[in-house]
Amino acid sequence: MKSATILFAIFVFCSEAKPQQIVIGSKKFTESYVLGEIAKTALQDAGFTVEHKQGMGGTIILWQALRGGQIALYPEYTGTISEEILKAKQPLSTDEIRALLRPEGVGVTGPLGFNNTYALVMRRDRAAKLGIRKISELRNHPDLSIGMTHEFLDREDGWAPLSARYDLQMRNVRGIDHALGYAALAAGSIDVKDAYSTDAKIAENNLIALEDDLHFFPQYNAVFLYRLGIDHRAVAALEKLAGTLDEGRMTRLNAEAERTKNYALAAALYFGEKPKQVPGELAGKIWRWTWRHLQLVGASLLLAIVAGIPLGIRASRPGPVSDFILSATGVIQTIPSLALLALLVPLPFFGISAVTAIFALFLYSLLPIVRNTATGLQDIPTAVRESAAALGLEPRAQLWKVFLPLASRTILAGIKTSAIINVGTATLAALIGVGGLGEPIISGLNLNDYSTILQGAIPAALLALLVQFAFDGLDRVIIPKGLRLKQ
Amino acid sequence: MIELQSVSKKFGTTIALHETDLCISAGKTTVLIGPSGCGKSTILRLIIGLLEPTTGTVIIEGQPVSASNLLALRRRIGYVIQEGGLFAHLTAAQNVLLMAKHLNQPRGQMQTRLQELCQLTHFPENALTRYPVELSGGQRQRVSLMRALMLQPSVLLLDEPLGALDPMVRARLQDELKEIFQRLRQTTVLVTHDMAEAGFFANLIVLLNEGRVVQSGTLDDLRSRPASTFVRDFLHAQRGLAAI
Question: What is the distance, to the nearest Å, from the Cα of residue B50 to the centroid of all Cα atoms in its chain?
Fold first, then answer.
C-alpha cells in the first residue's frame, strides 16, 4: 500500500498536469516542428495558453496521443492519413477523410496550401552524369546504393510498392535515418534517398527530386488534425491558416529553421514578426532539460529498485519461475526504445506522458538489478547459508540479517550499472514529448547540427559521471565495512 | 540424548546413509569418524535439520525433529563447521550476538555472556570489534564456537572444527575444547577423520564406512577387537610419529 502511494506520487510529480491549456504535438522533422510553432503562435494570438511538445516519435505515437487526449492537435498530411491511419486502398480526398475521422472525435482543418509529397532525390552532379531525371530511369542502374528512411521502407505507400510499380530491381537498399541520410548522400556513400518535396535540404545540398513519371506518390496536403472537443475559437484560429502556405513559402521557412536552428524564428517569419530573443536562454534550457532528465532517471530507477530486488531474490532460487524472470527481463532489453514506446502508448493509463517514459525506463533498468541480486545471493557459500539456518533464524531473518548484507556489493553494482545506462536511455523520453536531454539530441540529429546535439550529449555525459561518483560514495555507506576490508 | 531411528538419506540414486539406528548419550562426547563420504557429516546435518531424512526419524531429547519444531530445536543446538561459517559483514561480537539480539535478550545479559565466552574460549576481548577477515584461523574458530555456545545449547555439534588449522594451533585448541566439553557437560557430537583426535575427545567412537556404522566403542575396543578388516586398516592408516 505504502509503495503504491509512493508510485502514485512519483507519477503525479512527473506528469505536471496543466489544465486549461492546448497541447500541440509535432513529428520529429523540421517541417512538422515549424508547423507546430505556427499553430502555437496562432493560438496564442487567439488568447490561449499553448504548449508545444516538439519532435515526438512517428505517426502512430502522435495519432494515439491525439485520440487519447494527451495532445489537442498536430500537423499531418492527407496521404499519411489515408494510408497509415485509415488504411484506405485508394487515396482519399480531404472531405472523405473528414467524414471518416469524425466518429473518432477528430477534426481536420482545410489544407494549408502545399503538397509535401515523398520524392526520391539524388545529388545533381551524380544524376546528370548517369543521365537520370525520372524514377523509371533508375531501372537501368540496379547497382546504385539506395538509403531509405525506415518509415519509408515499411510504408504502405513506400519503397516496396514503388519498386513494384516501377519494376525496379535495386540490389543495394538499406535503412538510414532521415537527417543522417542527407549527410550520407553528400558524402557519396548512398546515391538515392527518399525526401519530402519541401525539404530545405534539396535546394541547400544541390539535389534534384526525380520526376514521379508513373504518378505513384499520392497527395500529401498538409492539414492540422484536432480533437473535436477543443474550443471553437481555437478551431477558427487554425482554419485561418488554411491556404496560406504554398510550397515555395514552406520550403523557405524550413530552410530558415535549419539555418538558424530555431523553429520559433521560422514561425515568426510566417507571421511577419521579429522573433523575441531572450538572453541567457540556453543555460536555462539546459538546466530544465537536465532537471527533467534527472526526474525521469530518478523515478524510474527507484521503481526498478523496488521491483527488481524482490524479483532478483526470487530469481536466486533455481526453478522455472526464476528462468522466466531472468529471460523476461533479458528480452525487454532487446526491444528498441521507439518500439517499446509504440507498444505502451496505446495502452490505457499510459498514452503520451511522463508515466509512459518512466515505465519504459523502469523496464530497461530491471535487468542489471534483477540479475545482480540473483547472482549476489547465489554466490553466498553453502557453509555460510547453512550456518545462518543452523542458528535457528527464520528464513526471512536469514535474508535480511545475513544474505542481503552479504550480497550488497553485487546488488549495488547492479543498481549503479542500471543508473548509468538509464542516464543514456532516458533520451527516449523526448520521442514522446516528455522532454529531458533527449530533446536537443533528437532535434540536433534532425537538423544535422552538432552543436545542438552536444547541448544534450555533454550534460548527459556529465550526468553519467556524476551518477557514478555519487554511487561510489554510496558504496561506503551501504556496503558493510567487513566486506570492504582487504583479506 | 539424540536418537536416529531407521534413518537413511539418499541424494537421487546415491545413498549417503543406509538405514541406521544410533543412540547418542546425553552429556557425553560422541565422535563420528570415517573416510571421506562415509556419511559422518550427513548424520550431523540430519540432526540439525539441514537435511531431511529419506526414511526414519531423528529424535532430540524426546522430540521428533519436524518442520514445526525445527527453529526451536536449532536454538538449543550449537553448530560449528570447519571454516567457521562466520558472517563476513559482522564483527566477531556481532556474529556471536546475532541470535541473542534477534531474540531481544536484555543488553546487560548479552554482554555478561559475551565476556564469559571470551574467557571460556580464550578469545581476547579487544579483538571482538574485528571482522572475520581480520582474524586468524584459530581466532575464527573460537568466534564460531562462541556463537554456537551463546544461547547455552544442550547439544553441541562440531563438523571437523579443527580441520583447517595448522598443527600447533590445532593441538592447543584440542586441549581447550576438551576442557570446555568437560566443564559444560553437553551432549556433544564431533566429526573428524583423525583417529588420534577421536581417541583424545571421545567417550564413544562411531566408525562409519560407505554410509553404514561399522563399529562403535572406545578406542581400546576398536584397537583390541576390530569388527572387520576395514576397522583394522583404518586404524593402521592413521600413522603416528612412532610408526615412522
Answer: 14
